[in-house]
Amino acid sequence: MALQIQALGKEDISEATRLHLRAFATDPLVNAIYPGAAESPNWLQHISTSIKTGQADPSQHLMKVTLPEDGQLMGIGQWEGCSRYISSPPSTPKPPPNGANIALVTAYRKQRSEKRAAIMGDRPHYSDLALLATESTYRRQGVARTLVEWGTDRASAEGVEAYLEAGPAALPFYFEMDFHKVDTMAVAGMDPGEDRVQNEIYCLLWRPQTISSK
Ligand SMILES: CC(C)(COP(=O)(O)OP(=O)(O)OC[C@H]1O[C@@H](n2cnc3c(N)ncnc32)[C@H](O)[C@@H]1OP(=O)(O)O)[C@@H](O)C(=O)NCCC(=O)NCCS
Is the terminal CB of the chain with fewer CB neighbours within 10 Å at N or C? Predict the structure, then answer.
């Protein structure tokens, strides 16, 4: 099936928010940050605002993959373009929603930005494939691949890297997309769970051939 990828429109915000909530309902990090996130109006509002803010920011690219016959959302993803790393520092992160574990969010954001600065320095790159989610009924049909390759194709054309963080569940998918693990961090203050990896976040790097071959 030929998948269509386009910019997410204002008319998609409500459905995209709900798709995201469903996809991350059992995600350990989301639930550590906001216990009961999937049922919470505050969390729903937080995701909806993130999508709206991203749409208003020219360095963000909110994309959707839809069913060709009726335009139904199959998956969404938000890339951050590399331009801001060349021209301006990253914007101030938005405050977490009421009810969030503020200490955990604050510590995690600090960990992330320190790790990212150490790994990427001031090299321009595409980043933060945030919100990436495929509706469960459409998984393993290349939806997320289409969303990821939209960004890595642009990174390749510009000769820059792509960098993101992911949890254990998404690791096999990103390896398949040619991302490589360059570091790991244990989220401070988060229960590692029975399998001892739930609090592990992996720092993943994708390199264009022009860089890989040097
Ligand atoms: C991770 C996720 C986005 C993958 O979406 P998807 O549309 O099913 O992925 P694709 O069909 O494009 O997968 C491409 C390839 O990645 C690999 N892959 C994808 N999901 C996988 C899984 N659960 N386990 C192992 N490999 C997987 C496969 O090699 C797959 O190719 P194949 O189906 O031909 O074998 C989806 O499972 C999801 O929405 N999960 C919940 C939210 C989430 O974790 N988002 C990522 C946050 S960082």
Answer: C
- What is the rounded CA–CA span in Å between residue 101 and residue 199? 15
Nearest CA, atom 41, ligand 1: 23
Span 93-112, mean pLDDT?
A: 89
Provide the pLDDT for residue 9. 96
**Residue to substitute in 140, 147, 187, 204 for testing ligand 1 pocket (most ligand atoms within 8 angstroms of CB):** 140
Distance CA 159, CA 153 (A): 10
pLDDT reading at 86 higher than 60? no
The CATH number that domain 4-212 falls under is 3.40.630.30
For the chain, the domains span 4-212
